[in-house]
Design brief:
The protein is an all-beta fold. The protein has three domains: about 20-55, no CATH class; about 60-125, Immunoglobulin-like (Sandwich), CATH 2.60.40; about 135-290, Glucose Permease (Domain IIA) (Distorted Sandwich), CATH 2.70.70. It contains no helices and 26 strands. Strands 12, 13, 15, 17, 18, 19, 22, 23 and 26 form a nine-stranded antiparallel β-sheet that branches. It has a three-stranded antiparallel β-sheet with strand order 2-1-3, with no helix packed on it. The radius of gyration is 21 Å and the shape is globular.
Length: about 290
């Protein structure tokens, strides 16, 4: 039986084998260090190393085919602390059905006396039935000085394509405390990468913390500094709780916080617009705007 699972970009792809790739380190024409998975096109001195991913990545969504006294069942286990929507497609009949599985739970999707036919499946984080509210988000950092938004909604550099249209970049010195902008449950923590750069090699390398909110939306706090996450998956956090420290890991032009609110909109991940509360006022995130922390 062939099973196939699709992940949103914030989660690891399923991979049961060890992978490795070459990393090229060299200086560009301006004397800046460049790290890339592709060699330079110009004749410059290159340091080549091999980056290995030695962590076996397992799917948090597990599928079991059970046979209990002639009754065949399709069981799904969701090990995440967030609900997921799962879509099952039976290969021959082309019949498609979708189900929402609560966080940290199991559910029997099908039960039949006949053998369950060949199928594929995919899943997406979030409950599409939930309705996001108009929550006024606190500034997600702790600093004695105002900090500037360097890229707002629909920013030309990297916020101009779904699902990242409503992302915000806030320039923060390395080591600034990142704090929860809204209470919720930590559903993902990646804190294992040390470098940053502007090539495609870094697109999936950024460290992050993700927090699920009461309205079904979830926030991503991206580019955190290696080794600074102070929370773990399953933790409950309140507004102002420290999550990590700011850095420049992954696809990044410099130290900053990438902040975005996502939701599942009918098996489609979308970002949603929001406002920050700064100095007691609602502020729409725009490039050049200064934010004051709590």
């Amino acid at each position: 039986m062939r099973l196939r699972t699709f992940f949103f970009i914030c989660f690891y792809l399923i991979c049961s084998s060890v992978s490795a790739s070459n990393v090229y380190k060299y200086k560009d024409s301006n004397g800046n260090w460049v790290f890339s998975d592709k060699p330079p096109i110009t004749d410059v001195k290159v340091e080549e190393t091999k980056y290995s991913d030695t962590v076996e990545k397992q799917s948090p969504i597990k599928i079991y085919l059970l046979n209990d006294e002639g009754k065949h069942e399709l069981l799904v286990e969701n090990t995440l602390y967030a609900p997921v929507e799962i879509e099952v497609t039976f290969t021959q009949s082309k019949k498609i059905s979708r189900h929402v599985i609560s966080g940290k739970s199991k559910a029997i999707l099908y039960s039949n006396l006949k053998v369950i036919p060949q199928f594929t499946y995919r899943w997406l984080i979030g409950d599409p039935v939930s309705n996001t509210d108009n929550y006024l988000y606190k500034t997600p950092f702790l600093s004695g000085l105002p900090r500037k938004i360097t890229q707002g909604f629909n920013g030309k550099f990297s916020h101009n394509k779904p699902p990242n249209n409503y992302a915000v970049d806030i320039a923060l010195p390395v080591g600034t405390y990142i704090t929860a902008a809204r209470s919720g449950t930590v559903i993902d923590v990646k804190d294992d990468y040390h470098m940053g750069g502007q090539t495609a090699y870094f697109l999936d390398k950024a460290n992050r913390v993700m927090v699920l909110h009461s309205d079904g939306s979830y926030a991503l706090y991206g580019h955190i500094l290696l080794g600074t996450a102070t929370v773990k998956v399953g933790d409950e956090v309140k507004v102002g709780d420290t999550l990590a420290m700011s850095g420049s890991s992954g696809f990044s032009t410099g130290p900053h916080l990438h902040f975005i609110i996502y939701k599942n909109s009918g098996f489609k991940t979308e970002s949603i617009p929001f406002n920050f509360e700064s100095n007691g006022k609602a502020v729409t995130p725009k490039r050049g705007v200064n934010l004051q922390s709590l």
